[in-house]
Every structure is written in C-alpha cells, then in structure tokens.
Amino acid sequence: MKILTAEQIREIDLKTTTYENISSLELMKRASKAFFDWFTTRFTDKNLPVSVFSGTGNNGGDGLVVARMLQKSGYKVNVFIVEYSQHYSEDCAHNVRRAKVENIPIKKITSTGDLPSLSGFEIIIDAIFGTGLNREVTGIAREVIEKINRSGKKIISIDVPSGLSMNGKTYFAVHATETVTMQIPKLALYLPDNRNFTGEVYLINIGLNETAISDAKTAFYFITKQEIKELLKPLDKFAHKGTQGHSLLIGGSIGKMGSVCLASRAALKTGCGLVTAYVPKCGTSVLQSAFPEAMVVEDRNDTHITGIDFTIHPDAVGAGVGLSESPETQHAFYRFLQQNKSPLVIDADGLNILSKNKEWLALLPSRTILTPHPKELSRLIGVWNEDYDKIYKTREFAKKYRLIIVLKGAYTLIIDSENVYVNSSGTPALATAGSGDVLTGIITSLLAQGYEPLDAAKAGVFIHGLTANLSATKIHARSFTASDIIDNIGNAYFDIEK
Ligand SMILES: NC(=O)C1=CN([C@@H]2O[C@H](COP(=O)(O)OP(=O)(O)OC[C@H]3O[C@@H](n4cnc5c(N)ncnc54)[C@H](O)[C@@H]3O)[C@@H](O)[C@H]2O)[C@H](O)CC1
Ligand SMILES: [K+]
Fold it and tell me: Who is most buried in 172, 234, 282, 308, counting CB within 10 A?
C-alpha cells in the first residue's frame, strides 16, 4: 500500500471527484461517514459527551459532518470552531451552516477568553488541522491544542493529529490517543519521533479512486497482510526437506547460546527444510538437547567462534547472533565474508563487527539483509538529527553497499537503495529478549526457501510482528517471550492465508 504526501493526497481527492463525478462535499461526506462508522463501533455508549474541535479548512469540515452524524444518531455533541483564520473552506462553511440548522450547540473560539472548560466531556474529536497545515501552529489554535493536551481526555484525531508536520520534524501538535487516518497512510504517522502525537493509528477506507491512487508515484510503502499473502509461495505437494531450503545460523558464544537456539528454531518453524547451527564447542550439547531438529557444526574453539569452516552448502546464512566481538571471531567473520556466496542476513554482533571494520561492508553479497536496531544502525551510519534524516541517511547507506536494511522498531522500516517499507504488524510485546534473534531466523529461513531478499525481509518482519498481534488476547504483552513468537509462526501463516 502506498504512503503518499499531502500534495499527492490532495491530487487524488481532486481526481476522485472528477473521475467519479461527485462534488468535494460528497467526498467529505464519504470520508466523514467512514470516520463515523469507526467511531460508533469504538464508542458504543451514546451518553458519553463528545466535543468536536473543528478548524476552518476541510479537516474542520470533516469534524462538522461527523458532529452532525453523531447528533443524528443520538450522541451528545458540542462543536467548537477554532477560528484560526476567518477564511473558511467552502465545504467547511457549508457544514457550519448545516450544523446550525440542525441545532448542534456551536461555539466559536477566536481568543483566549473563548477557551471552553473541557471537564464535562469524555471524548474530544480533533478536527482542527489536517494534511493542509503548512506552518507552525501559533495563536489561538496553539492555545486550544495546549488545553486539549492538558485535559487528560480521550482525543481522537481525524486524519492526523492537528499540528503534525507532513514532511519534517514536529515540535508541537495534538497528543492523540487514537488517530483515524483517511485511507492513505502518511509517513509522519509511523515515525518514532511522533509517537506521542499519533497514539494508536487506524486506517479507514473512504472510497478514493483506485486509478488515481495507482497513478501516484512513491518510494514509500506500508506493508499490508494482503501483500504478504500474495507473495507467499504455495507449498509444493511433492516437497521434501531437500527442496525446502537449508538455513545455516552462525553465532553463539559462552553464555549467549540461547540466541542461536532461538534463531535456529525460528528458521525451522518458518518452513525451511533443514537447519544447521554453526557454534563454538560449548554450544553443541546446548543446541542438540534444546533443539534436536537442528544439525550442528562445531567450531574448533570452546567459548567463541574462531574458524567458521564448514563443508555444507546452505541456501542462506544468518550470521551474528550471540557471536561476540573477540578479535579471533572478527577475523573468522572476515574470512567467512571473503568466501561466502550464499544470501545473507547479518544481525547483532555481526553488525557490531562490521561497524568496527566498515571496509568489510564491500564484501557483502548484493542485497544482503542487515537487521539493526537504532543503536546498531547509528554505529554503522553515524548519528542523525531526526527521523527523516535517519531514513534518508539509511537509504544512502543501503545504496552505497547495495544492501537491505531492516531497521527494527515499533514500525520496523525496510529500506533498500530506492524504497522504504513501513511494517504494519506488531505490538510492544515484541520488545523482549531474543526477539531480534527470532527475526534473524525467520528471514534467513525465507531466504533459504528461495524468496527474493526484499520479499524475505518484508514477509519476515510482517510474520514476526503478526505473532504478537495474534497473541494479544492470550498472552499478556508483558509476559510474551521470544519463544512465544516462534510458537506462533504457524498461526501467523494461518492468519495470512485466511
Ligand atoms: N482524501 C482525503 O483524505 C480527504 C480529506 N479531507 C480532509 O481534508 C483535510 C485537508 O484539508 P485542507 O483544507 O487542505 O487543510 P486543513 O483542514 O488541514 O486546514 C489547514 C487550513 O489552514 C491553512 N493553514 C495552514 N497552516 C496554518 C496555520 N499554521 N495557521 C493558520 N492557518 C493555516 C491552510 O491554508 C488550510 O486552509 C484532510 O486532512 C482531511 O481531513 C476531505 O474532507 C475528504 C477527502
Ligand atoms: K486533525
């Protein structure tokens, strides 16, 4: 699914009205009806007093239409018009008139003295600014937003939290508890810097014209279940373990053998036919007893890897989990990189070793997948100022070394030399020890099964996140573990194929 800019969305609005021969007012109604449907499903108690804060643009217009629909269906609604400008969009002005005719209590806020008390309301609908905002919020709008933010009430933002910048760092905006955005994902809604503004983000379909959307060019995408469903390969009736791919996981050191166990088990559970773990001697019995399905190739050294010599022919390699950064291990890793021709995933200490030896990056096969968390990424590419800067620097880095970067976080980003993909699955339950090791195993397995590296990264990240969504009501987020991720990989496949 495409992530688009405010300008592109405006163009799609316009094309929708032209192609479908409807007025902009009609489109506003469609959008507002979609929000109304979401809202009434989410908040079924009609006695909860709702206040709608509307601006004078089309976002404000949406708020007014929503207020009208809510009042009509029996909700108690008050509207406050935040008159930051005396210029009203045509469709907003129309809906102010309609709301007055329908006797909705409306108050204008033009100065500090007009600021209402919020104590009587349970829910605030924020329709002050949408994607049309193009400067810092000042004046009365700022005062209203400050007051809303201090209220401690539920704040539901229509389309975007008012004040959110669509193309740069946001310093001031509504702190929404939930944002209900209209059909097209906007990058700003998924950036960690904006987490206090957006709250939980929902996408609703407002019936924008599909041709208009498919005409829009972009380098930013939102990964959806449907896309993952389409890229998963069907199981061959005549499959046997030799045709399903062989994953090799290289890693582990004394005290850190769990990481390779997790990655190996995740690889097998993701569907490759064979899994081999390459570990130091101290890891052999750990692996063989914890995970009998795996084969083990032992390093000559006891506590950490010093060789990386093997005669097997893996279809993909995942290297780096629990590896340690000792000088002999670094040297062994260098020799491995010189010889390796298999598709590769590098994580954890593998990344740290690369950060210390940046010239080795040139040895990586094209489309190697690196899976850093933000700290590991900064060791590789240096520091960044804010999220947009981070994304562009990562893309440059990916381009320079022909890599795919999986930047782990709440909305994991997959970045290659051209495009940026935002993952849509997952919950905070995934912030748990070993979660990254499991991801490495999943992606390695998909590579071994013959998926293109970008598809392996996308599907791997999506499946990994989905295990947490699917467990949300069964395992409390606080007690969800990396092993639970592995145990739910099968459920994730079921859910995707549904
Ligand atoms: N396809 C869709 O998603 C649809 C979206 N709709 C809604 O329309 C808004 C965008 O509306 P627009 O009128 O372009 O802008 P805003 O409502 O966001 O209002 C901004 C408004 O104010 C002016 N302005 C900009 N910055 C400032 C400022 N700092 N201070 C004062 N004034 C400012 C600006 O020129 C605008 O006029 C979108 O988010 C949706 O909610 C449609 O209703 C349906 C289709
Ligand atoms: K808004």
Answer: 308
Q: Give the DSSP per-residue string, 126-169.
A: EES--TT--S---HHHHHHHHHHHHS-SEEEEESS-TT--SSS-
- Residue appearing with tokens 């007012």: 25
Task: Reply yes or no on whether the pLDDT at 235 is more than 90.
Answer: no
Q: Report the alpha-carbon distance of residue 472 to residue 495 in Å, rounded.
A: 14
**Tally of domains within the chain:** 2
φ, ψ of residue 294 in degrees (nearest 5): -85, 150
Establish if 288 belongs to a structural domain: yes
Rounded to an integer, what distance in angstroms lies between the CA atom of residue 492 and that of residue 269?
Answer: 11
ipTM: 0.93
Pick from 176, 193, 218: which residue ends a domain?
218
For residues 52-65, one letter each, b for 16 or more C-beta atoms within 10 angstroms of the residue's C-beta and e for the rest, the string is bbbbbbbbbbbbbb
Q: What is the pLDDT of residue 208?
A: 98
How many C-beta atoms surround the C-beta of residue 102 within 10 A? 12
For residue 280, what are the domain limits?
Answer: 228-497
C-beta separation of 248 from 310 below 8 A: yes
CATH of the domain at 120: 3.40.50.10260
List pocket residues of ligand 1, CB cut-off 6 Å: 9, 13, 27-28, 31, 55, 57-62, 84-85, 89, 129-135, 137, 158-159, 182, 208
Asked whether the predicted pLDDT for residue 239 surpasses 90, the reply is: no
User: 231 φ, ψ to 5°?
Assistant: -90, -15
With 0.90 as the threshold, say if the pTM is over it. Answer: yes
CA R_g for the chain: 26
Contact between 89 and 15 under an 8 Å Cβ cutoff? The reply is no
* 1 within a domain of the structure (yes/no): no
Q: Which residues surround ligand 2, an ion (CB under 5 A)?
A: 59, 126, 157-158, 162
**pLDDT reported for residue 237:** 84
